[in-house]
Every structure is written in C-alpha cells, then in structure tokens.
Amino acid sequence: MSKYAEQYFRKVTSMFEQTLSESSEAIGRAAALMGAAIVADELIHVIGTGGHSNLGAEEMFWRAGGLVPVDALLDPGTSLMHGALRSNKVERTGGYAKAVLDSYNIVDGVLVIVNAYGINTMTIEVALEAKQRSVPTIGVTSRAFGENVPPGHKARHPSGENLCDIVDVFVDSHMPYGDALVDFEGLGQRVAPSSTLANCFTVNLLVVETVKYLLDRGFEPPLWQSANVPGGEEANEKYQRKYGGRIKHLA
C-alpha cells in the first residue's frame, strides 16, 4: 500500500476521532430528539440536500441494524442520477425546498438535514421551512467548510447563512475545507473525498445513541434486520405493516 493510501486512512481516522470527541454532546441532544419522536410514534425524517449528501439520507433508511421509523426524503431533483450539473442547479433554486417538504407532508417528528457543506439554497431553505412548521431540526454538516466559503459565493443561499447556525441541534461532522484529503507532491488538487464518509459515520452515531436513549428508558428500539439473512424478512414484516402507509419509500 502506498504512503498516499496510508495518508487517507490516517486523515479519515482522525476526522472520525474528532467527531467522537468534540461532537458527543450535540449527538446526545440530537439522539434525545430522535428518541422522543419514536416514543411519540412520530417519524425521523431525513434529507440530503444536494449531490452526494443524498447518500447520508439513504444511509439511515432501510438498513440492517438501522432505525425503522426513518422517512427518507429521496427527492430526485438533487440526485446525481439525473445529471451532475442539473443537481447543482436544483440545489441552488429558491422555493424548491418548500415543495419537497410539502410533497412528503413534513408536519411533525424531527428532521435530520445532511449536507456536508451546509451553505446551498436547498439546505438553508429546508431548515428555515422546517422551523416555520415547528418541526425540530438536526443539522449534520461541517462548520469548518461552511465558514470558509466566502460571502457572496454563488453556491451560497442569498442570506449567506450556514446550516450549523440555524438548526436546533448542530452535529459537526468535522469534514475539512475542500473535502478531499490526500496531498500528492506537485499536484495542486487534493485527492480522495471525505464528505460521504463523514456524513455516514455521523448519522450512524445518531442511530447508536438513539438506541441507547430508548433502551435507557425501557423502550424497545424498532430496528430493521437484514433481508439477506435467514429470518430477516419475516422479522421485518411487522414493521412493514405498521409503517407501510406512512413512509413514502418503504413500498
């Protein structure tokens, strides 16, 4: 293995360790919101507001060992499968976020907003619209990235706000500015992104701590089993019956 691969490993590991050490209090507060929603028989809504951040929402949804009452807002507008440049344009389009929240009928529960950069129009408007609906918000993003993007940059929401400053609970993923991690001699652009790893690691910490929150209160956590192991599909059937009409993409 080259020294560059080892560099990537070390930097990713350091990023994870920083999240564990510096974001633990926020993760606990976020888990309390998520756990309370489950106890109240409400949903944990999750949205990735642009490009690869959609993977953070998918990571929380329909996963072995994942929470069942997760409603992933998998809107195709910002998905890369319909075009990378198109995704950038949609995530910068004002008014689009409200239409997405309307289409998923987001009126209660808690909303997890996953966006590595935390600055685009879709991201900021999702958070502001949720606030208008009195839906608590959890933001998974990187303060280091958002605060280093200059005011007036075209990727920003016109307000210039950062997601980390407007959500009810901000969980810092500690992704570094620029996203990519590996330095090659003589190459100006770093190699190997970190944002998806940072997002997925952080949202899974939220899941782990939510399960702990529920167990500490004597509440059995509703968890999916893998459909690829014996008995998995059978164990999941009761949850499919309960949530099939409430979680849009469960069918």
Molecular structure report:
The protein is α/β, with parallel strands linked by helices and 251 residues long. The protein has one domain (3-224): Rossmann fold, CATH 3.40.50. The chain has nine helices and five strands. The protein has helices at 3-22, 24-39, 54-60, 84-91, 96-103, 121-132, 143-146, 195-216, 232-243, and strands at residues 44-48, 70-72, 110-114, 137-141, 169-172. The protein has a five-stranded parallel beta sheet with strand order 2-1-3-4-5, with helices on both faces. β3, α6 and β4 (137-141) form a beta-alpha-beta unit. α1 packs parallel to α8 (195-216) and α3 runs parallel beside α8 (195-216). The chain is globular, with a radius of gyration of 18 Å. It starts with a helix and ends in an 8-residue tail after the last helix. The mean pLDDT is 97.
Give a quick set of tags describing it.
Rossmann fold, alpha/beta, five-stranded parallel sheet, 9 helices, globular, 251 residues
The biggest sheet, with number of strands, parallel, antiparallel or mixed sense and barrel status, is: 5 strands, parallel
Report the C-alpha radius of gyration, rounded. Answer: 18 Å
CATH homolog superfamily: Glucose-6-phosphate isomerase like protein, domain 1
Residue share in helices?
A: 40-55%
Overall mean pLDDT? 97
Q: How many domain units?
A: 1
Oligomer: single chain
Strand order of the largest sheet: 2-1-3-4-5
- CATH domain fold name: Rossmann fold
